[in-house]
Design goal:
- The chain has two domains: 142 residues, Aspartate Aminotransferase, domain 2, CATH 3.40.640; 72 residues, no CATH class.
- It is globular.
- Strand 7 and strand 8 form a beta hairpin.
- Helix 1 packs parallel to helix 2.
- 33% of the residues lie in helices and 15% in strands.
- By secondary structure, it is of the alpha/beta class.
- A four-stranded mixed beta sheet has the order 1-2-3-4. A two-stranded antiparallel sheet has the order 5-6.
Length: 239
């Protein structure tokens, strides 16, 4: 455990933790569990990307104990990572997908689930068996339908992957120039940069706050216009 708590680049900590994490999951599943929820790419916790084989191994264990795998796509769904669902990057088919946020982008918030057919049949969920105060609101469902149509109009996967690769390359270039930039990583446009002290490891909250305040001023010049930036601060080493 002490080894996992060392101040090291996040990707190194993740790689070290994979085997022990899989073992811990299997031990937990010896209890009576129905479903296992996971964000394929951790969002607010710091945009943490697991190794490629992590979810494959985890799914084998879940299937072994008849535990459903629920992919939480609330934050990473709808092409933020370059795929409609971020779990697609890991070659695993979940039993259930939960989604929201980008479906209506704040206009009459709407969320939902997709599930394997045998889990969500009319026999299991007949009319009237579920209820929500805001279910099927006209504006939200119409907005969600329009978003789904817009997703088909251009190749979002190509656009996001190309833009993300360019953005990540610029972050890596900043890392070479500034000691205060620690580990950088990302998938599609779900990117992170660790803002650190000059040791490249210790979190630097003061500098992070300064960057945030500069971004909020809205006075960045680009092609003759003034812009601001919207940045998300989260995680332990990922700011």
């Amino acid at each position: 455990m002490e080894e996992l708590l060392e101040l090291r680049p996040l990707h190194q900590v993740i790689d070290t933790a994979v085997d022990s994490g899989i073992l811990a999951i299997e031990r937990i599943l010896l209890l009576i569990l129905i479903a296992f929820f996971a964000e394929p790419i951790q969002g607010t916790g710091g945009y943490v990307i697991p190794p490629k084989g992590y979810f494959k191994e985890m799914k084998k264990i879940l299937d072994k104990y008849n535990v459903l795998f629920v992919s939480d796509e609330i934050q990473m769904g709808f092409y933020r990572t370059g795929k409609l669902w971020s779990i697609e990057h890991f070659e695993v088919t979940p039993d259930i997908i939960t989604f929201g946020k980008a479906l209506t982008n704040g206009m009459n918030p709407l969320s939902g689930i997709w599930a394997k057919g045998e889990l969500i049949t009319p026999e299991k969920f007949p009319p009237g068996s579920t209820h929500s105060t805001f279910s099927s609101n006209p504006l939200g469902t119409r907005t969600g339908l329009e978003v789904m149509k817009m997703l088909e109009e251009i190749d979002h996967e190509k656009m996001v992957m190309e833009s993300g690769a360019y953005f990540l390359a610029q972050l890596k270039d900043l890392k070479k120039k500034h000691k205060q930039i620690g580990d950088v990583d990302g998938l599609g446009l779900a990117l992170r940069a660790e803002v650190c002290e000059e040791d490249g490891l210790t979190p630097n909250k003061k500098l992070t706050d300064k960057i945030m305040n500069e971004a909020l001023k809205g006075d960045l010049d680009y092609k003759g216009k003034k812009y601001g930036l919207v940045l998300d601060v989260g995680g332990y080493l990922a700011y």
